Amino acid sequence: MNIVPLPKYTKNWCVDVFSNDGLNDLIRYFSLWTITKSKFPRNNTLSLSIYNTSNSKMQFLNSKYRNKNEATNVLAFSSSSMPFEIHSHHLLGEIFFSSQKINDEANILQKKASNHLAHLIIHSTLHLLGYHHDDDEQKMKMQQKEIDILKIFEIDNPYCS
User: Fold this and answer.
1) Domains of the chain in sequence order
2) What pLDDT is attached to residue 136?
3) To 10 degrees, the CA torsion angle through 54, 96, 34, 130?
4) Maximum distance among all alpha carbons in the chain?
5) Which of 54, 44, 41, 48 is nearest to 16 (CA)?
6) Higher pLDDT, residue 19 or 87
7) 80 burial class (0-12, 13-18, 19+ CB within 10 angstroms)?
8) CA pair distance 4, 1, nearest whole angstrom
């Protein structure tokens, strides 16, 4: 994995990561690079919170908010529908992920867990920035953005076998 320094303007962006697996800096790094490669205004400040939680908590959240009674790898909750933009400070939202689920998936997919985690953090951050995959055009645009960001870190296209 290639580590590329973040632009200086990201110092105004607060990404809090709550994880006990030692990956806080890496997760923060992936989310900040994703925001950098979006159209988010460089002079604005923002806040984003990312939580590592258990499979059972992910199942609860997935059931409550998506009506799917199963654990999932990552969920992103945008605050864009709430009036949280105050004096050019933007509360982007919250991301919940299960490192256990991500590690299990990486083993099944025969991928490095850190690469799979990078992809999912980038994917969920893009959702908070307004990217979606509701139709083929949006899906292609979002996937290309993910691939372009992953390329920065020399991580292979996750959509190729």
Assistant:
1) 12-152 (3.40.390.30)
2) 95
3) 150
4) 46
5) 48
6) 19
7) middle
8) 10
